[in-house]
Amino acid sequence: MITKKKVVIIIGAGPAGLTAAYELLEHTDFLPIIFESTGDIGGISKTIEYKGNRMDIGGHRFFSKSDRVMDFWKNILPVEEGKGSSTDPAQTDRVMLVRNRISRILFSGKFFDYPITLNGSTLSNLGLISIMKIGFSYIYARLFPIRREDNLEDFFINRFGKQLYLTFFKDYTEKVWGVSCREIKPEWGAQRIKGLSVTKTLLHALHQLFYRDASLNQKNMETSLIEHFYYPKYGPGQLWEEVARQIQEKGGRLHLQQQVIGIQHQQDRVIGVKVLDILSGESTFYPADVFFSTMPVRDLIAAMGSTVPQIIQKTAQGLQYRDFMTVGLLLKKVKLQNTGHDKGENGKILDNWIYIQEKEVKLGRLQIFNNWSPYMVRDTNTIFMGLEYFCNEEDTLWSMTDEAFAQFAIDELVAIDVIDRADVLDYTVVRMPKAYPAYFGSYDEFPIIRAYTDSFDNLFLIGRNGMHRYNNADHSMLTAMMAVEATQKQSVTKADIWNVNTEEEYHETRNAKL
Fold first, then answer.
1. What was the pLDDT predicted at 270?
2. Which domains does the chain have, with CATH numbers?
C-alpha cells in the first residue's frame, strides 16, 4: 500500500521559503510545493544579470552567528580553499569566496569608517570641537538616559549620545524610511543595531590595534563590526538558484509566476490556497496539510477574505512598507580618492558599499559590485555600481521612466563629485516593492495580527515580509528551520519562531519601564 505524502504549501521563493522546502526534503516525509509570484528565485536576495554584469540587490554578506545557517550555506556552495584546489574560483563556479568587509560613510565630502571609529582619520575629519561635543553628549546620555524609549530617536540617543545621533544617524535613517525617527518604533533599532554602542566600538578599535582575526569565527563580535564574510562567486542569487535546483532534484515542486490570491480556512485550520497563473490568467485551488507564508502580511490577511475580523483587516491594511530602487551603473572609472588602507591596487576603491549622508542628494547608498566579487563584472577594467534609493510606490521617483530615473541618479553622483558624466558607459534600473517592512503605521497593533494567524494550527509565518520584521537572510532562514521542526511536532512552538532575531533583554527592560 502506498502512503500518500503530506503536502506543505510554501508561499514565496525567497531565502525563508527555499530554506523551508530544502529542510522539509532533508528531514521529513512532507512534500513541499512552492508558489512564487514573480519569475525570479531568491526574493530580495536574487542576483540581477545585465549584459554580463551582475547586481546584488541590497547587498548580502554571508555571515551568521548561527552554526546551523553557516553549515547550510557551506553545504550548498563550498568555501574556496586556495589556488589549485577543487574550490579554486578560477577553476569552478560552485564556490563561496572569502571577502574582506569594507564599508564607509560619505559625509560632507569626507570618508568615515562604518561603523564610526575614533581613529586618526575620524578625528581629523570631524575636528576637535565636534569630537568634544560628541564626547560630552555621550557622557550625558550615559549619566542621564531617556528612561522610556518611545521611538527610534530615543534608542539612538541612549546608545550614542545626541550629537553623534544628529551627525551620523538621523538624516540617513530618515532618508531610508521617509519619516522622522520619532515616528519609528525602537524595536527597529533593537533588531538592526542590536548591542552596538560607542563603548563596544571603542573596545573593538583597541582590540584591532593588537590583534586582527582573519578567520570567519567572529561570533562574539557585533555583526556591524565583522571584518570577513562569505560570498557566492556570482552573488547571492547563485546560492538560492542552486538551492532551488536541489529542491526540484529531490522531488520538491517550484512554480514561478503563480500568485496566491486566496486562502481558504475553516475554524482553526487553513485548508487550501487559490493560485493565479499570471501568464494564463487562470486560477486553481490547491489543498494541503501545512502552509508556510512569506508573503507580505498585509496581502496575507487580504487573501484570507471577509471572514477575518474587521479589527484584524484594518490593522493589516495599515501596515507600511518601504520600497527600493537600484540603478546599476557601468563606469570607466570613478573620481573618489582614497588613502591608507582604503586604497587598492592602482587606486581602486575597496568598499563593498558606501553610505551617502550628503543632505543635498536622495541617494542612500552605493555598492561597488567589483568588490563583492570580481566575477560580478564582465570587464574588470570597468566599475559596476549599484545606486540605491528608498521610496514608496506612490512617490515621484518610483513613477519615473527608467531613463529619467537613471539620469537623475547620475546627476546626483556628479553633484557630489563621485563620477564624471563622461565616464558612464551603461545603466539599468531595478525596482523592488515591499523591500522593507516598516516599524510605523499600524505596527503598534501588530500583536493582534500575530495572535490571529497563530490561532491557525497549520499556518506558519516565516521570513522578513512573512513576519513583518526586518530580518536578515540568516534570521529568515532560522524561522524557516524552526517552522519545519514544528511540523514534526517536536518541542519548537510558534513562539520560538517569533523569538528569532529579537532582543529579549531589551524588550524586557523596556516593558519594565512602561
1. 97
2. 7-43+237-318+442-513 (3.50.50.60), 113-210 (no CATH), 320-441 (3.90.660.10)
